Q: What sequence folds into this?
């Protein structure tokens, strides 16, 4: 066997496999370079989804002929200040994008520094095929043709022009959101697709996300321990079947990082069905020494020094924002309904104030007996078919100022009709109760009152040493969730209890999953995940069914608990639990207004 150095063309081709996998990734590299060059305006032109041609023109710094030659050499970069890889603020720093792309395409690079003449260089699959003067305004224009034409192994994996175009558009959108101060245009097959003027981040995001977010979005701005998170997310009731509209940025660099995506998901857990996805544009600002961006060839994944702090900020911040909005989501849903099911801003205000004021545990406790009664009664009561679909109670007592009003009757043994000071409220009793049960179980868990299954003989689970170290590091958290562990020598853990809600469970498998998850995400996710899942399932089974007749006391108890329970505005599947028809709306319906 003889060892030899690979020729540079081959090294570049191998790197191209990592950096450039399709037109969109080449396009991303070119636009990033233009941004790093200080461009104020970037024009992108594509043919056939970039399969035929990609061209990026910028008005940035430009390059001298000598710099152009260097730029096409591997590991030549102008972006590493004092060789310090830790303090990179530019998009690029590896010095491999241009030579990689040039090795698998025909590339023409034209550039002009302000006050000098323009120059151009042409490369055909890594080989220089000529250079000479070029006429262009100050800045740089790069075009790529026939990407992967001579690399059949790669070409094979390319998709239709339409699919490649979609990926290119996505890449441009992400970078345009990251840099709202820069103007962009995008043309595809001669058609103008995007024209973006320089603006502020919120306006740019609004331009590029669905306009529905004006009504269905929640603004985010929170900070903790030197980290800051800003942006916009959709209300749980406004969601999508695919996770394609999630734009995440770390220090204004677009990323597709698993930890961030996982944290976004976790924030919506049990507010949204498992196969539905929120829309989000989130910007995380983090000190440079807290994050390593040099872990992925395309720089879309990052590594955080303290992943759980990042996760905590995101899950906590989004959750708080969603909780504050949760009562409103149901009300807003009404706006889209055919009749005028709306809620006025003042109503939202009053409701939120009421929730804040009545959020104290003492008050919640006061309602507990009534609630227990609801559950018990509802569970012991026999279901029966009943002829009239509605029952009503005479309106004798005055309506006290409860946001969800006083129960007046039940329709179709499924909906509670209540009279509030400012209108008529209809509650889906099953959806509402399911939500309340889940929230109660969660509160118990967070309050440390988790039911535990005690193992008479503690179980010893063998794991490798790093996994044991990870579990040991999370012993306190896991204990809070009902999983009591102890270190048992270098390569084993002792299990004393596990959460009863999990039922009969494979303890060894659970520990292995947990250790893996801690390694990846820096937090014991799967146990929470499993518990939430189990909790949601139990909640659904333990709830007042649709079709169950309720007494007025039961209905009122349900309304009162909804008022003091966070996130009660929507069910575990993200649908609203109640809607309201204001007095004004009722009058309009009858032509009195
Ligand atoms: N549009 C441009 N305007 C001005 N200079 C550019 C432009 N594109 C590339 N360059 C110069 O060419 C060099 C090489 O670019 P290339 O993309 O290969 O590497 P990089 O951006 O430094 O790092 P990375 O491989 O991480 O993208 C850059 O460092 C920059 O100096
Ligand atoms: Mg670059």
A:
């Amino acid at each position: 066997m003889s060892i030899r150095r690979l020729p540079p063309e081959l090294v570049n081709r191998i790197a191209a496999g990592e950096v450039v996998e399709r037109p969109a990734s080449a396009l991303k590299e070119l636009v990033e370079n233009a941004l790093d060059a200080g461009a104020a305006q970037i024009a992108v032109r594509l043919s056939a989804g970039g399969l035929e041609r990609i061209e990026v023109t910028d008005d940035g710094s430009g390059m001298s002929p000598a710099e152009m030659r260097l730029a096409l050499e591997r590991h030549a970069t102008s972006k590493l200040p004092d060789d310090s890889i830790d303090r990179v603020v530019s998009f690029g720093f590896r010095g491999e994008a241009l030579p990689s792309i040039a090795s698998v395409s025909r590339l023409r690079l034209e550039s002009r520094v302000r006050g000098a003449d323009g120059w151009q260089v042409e490369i055909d699959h890594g080989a220089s095929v000529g250079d000479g003067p070029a006429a262009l305004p100050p800045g740089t224009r790069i075009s790529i043709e026939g990407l992967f034409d001579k690399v059949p192994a790669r070409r094979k994996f390319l998709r239709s022009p339409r699919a490649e175009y979609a990926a290119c558009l996505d890449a441009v959108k992400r970078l345009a959101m990251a840099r709202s101060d820069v103007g962009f245009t995008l043309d595809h097959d001669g058609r103008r697709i995007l024209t973006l003027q320089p603006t502020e981040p919120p306006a740019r995001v609004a331009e590029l996300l669905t306009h529905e977010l004006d009504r269905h979005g929640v603004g985010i701005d929170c900070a903790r321990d030197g980290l800051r998170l800003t942006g916009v997310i959709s209300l749980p009731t406004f969601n999508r079947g695919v996770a394609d509209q999630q734009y995440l940025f770390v220090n204004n660099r677009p990323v597709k990082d698993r930890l961030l995506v996982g944290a976004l998901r976790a924030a919506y857990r049990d507010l949204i069905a498992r196969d539905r996805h929120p829309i989000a544009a989130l910007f995380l600002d983090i000190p440079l020494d807290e994050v390593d961006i040099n872990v992925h060839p395309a720089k879309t994944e990052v590594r955080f020094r303290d992943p759980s702090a990042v996760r905590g900020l995101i899950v906590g911040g989004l959750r708080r924002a969603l909780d504050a909005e949760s009562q409103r989501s149901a009300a807003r849903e009404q706006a889209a309904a055919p009749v005028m099911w709306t809620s006025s801003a003042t109503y939202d205000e009053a409701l939120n104030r009421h929730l804040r004021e009545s959020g104290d545990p003492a008050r919640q406790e006061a309602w507990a007996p009534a609630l227990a009664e609801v559950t018990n009664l509802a569970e012991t009561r026999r279901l029966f078919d009943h002829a009239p679909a509605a029952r009503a109670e005479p309106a004798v007592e005055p309506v006290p100022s409860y946001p969800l009003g006083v129960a007046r009757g039940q329709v179709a043994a499924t909906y509670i009709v209540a009279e509030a000071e400012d209108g008529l409220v209809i509650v889906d009793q099953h959806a509402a109760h399911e939500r309340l049960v889940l929230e109660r179980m969660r509160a118990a868990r967070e309050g440390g009152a988790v039911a535990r299954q005690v193992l008479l003989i503690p179980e010893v689970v063998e794991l490798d040493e790093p996994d044991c170290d990870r579990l040991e590091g999370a012993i306190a958290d896991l204990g809070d969730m009902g999983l009591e562990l102890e270190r048992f020598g270098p390569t084993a853990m002792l299990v004393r209890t596990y959460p009863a809600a999990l039922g009969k469970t494979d303890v060894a498998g659970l520990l292995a999953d947990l250790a893996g998850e801690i390694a990846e995400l820096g937090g014991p996710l799967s146990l929470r995940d499993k518990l939430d899942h189990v909790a949601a399932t139990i909640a659904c089974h333990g709830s007042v069914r649709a079709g169950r007749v309720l007494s007025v006391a039961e209905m009122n108890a349900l309304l009162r608990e909804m008022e003091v329970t966070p996130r009660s505005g929507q069910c575990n599947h993200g649908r609203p639990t109640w809607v309201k028809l204001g007095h004004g709306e009722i009058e309009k319906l009858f032509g009195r207004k």
Q: What stands out?
A: The first helix runs from residue 8 to 19. The pocket of adenosine-5'-triphosphate (ligand 1) is lined by residues 29, 33-34, 37, 58, 60-63, 71, 77-79, 92-98, 140 (CB under 6 Å). Residues 262 and 521 are 8 Å apart (CA to CA). The radius of gyration is 30 Å.
